[in-house]
Design goal:
The protein is an all-beta fold. It contains no helices and 11 strands. The radius of gyration is 13 Å and the shape is globular.
Length: 121
């Protein structure tokens, strides 16, 4: 059974940091690209970052470049999103998703249930 479980979300003050984890099971992580997405109520889910199967290629939306770092540990079936310098506009539910494709999209095959990130003073 394929599972992706996000963890590490929470409430943090502006400027703070969080490390999100995406723990996977039921498939070989090394065969899948991993994407991180953010959803805010009333707004379409937005892709935040993507990492290739090997981890050699990464992608970030402009608003998080220089602050977020995506990584993966295929041996331990886990992907990560290190978020530094958090801003209130980073608030949302963060999802990880996996797909056999070489790139990320909004049609990823498998999705986690999300973890809430709230940036507020």
């Amino acid at each position: 059974q394929v599972q992706l479980v996000e963890s590490g979300g929470g409430l943090v003050q502006p400027g703070g940091s969080l490390l999100l984890s995406c723990t996977t099971s039921g498939f070989t992580l090394a065969d899948y690209a991993i994407g991180w997405y953010r959803q805010v109520p009333g707004i379409k889910r937005k892709g935040v970052s993507c990492i290739s199967k090997s981890g050699d290629n990464t992608y970030y939306i402009d608003s998080v470049k220089g602050r977020f770092t995506v990584s993966r540990d295929n041996a331990n079936s886990t992907a990560y999103l290190q978020m530094n310098g958090l801003k209130p506009e980073d608030t949302g539910v963060y999802f990880c998703a996996a797909d056999l494709s070489t790139t990320c999209s909004y049609d990823m095959a498998y999705w986690g249930r999300g973890t809430q990130v709230t940036v507020s003073s």
